[in-house]
Write a structure and sequence with these properties.
Shape: globular
Distance between the termini: 26 Å
Order of helices and strands: HEHHEEH
Strand order of the largest sheet: 1-3-2
Number of strands: 3
Largest sheet: 3 strands, antiparallel
Structural class: alpha+beta
Amino acid sequence: MNLENTQVQMRKGILEFCILNIISRGEVYASDMLEELTSAKIMVVEGTLYPLLTRLRKAGLVDYKWVESNSGPPRKYYTITDSGQEFLTSLGSTWQELVTSTSQIISNTK
């Protein structure tokens, strides 16, 4: 079994949750999301982030607006929708359940 592949799959499983959390703080540019995810060692490349943002937008969980930039082309800034906030709240509950369950299993020594 490949350890690196398993680690990548674990990170991918929480990526939506992490992205929605970042966007829920306020308007955010995709490269800022990418920087935060990279610094948190949720290894993401643009080729992963943009399709996920598109899926989240099509699902009505996030929206974006174009903002003119002084240093180049307009930038797309993402915000969370009301539906996205509800979805994030549910994911947060699921995350807490998983953390509790996983911690229980990991700490159960014989």
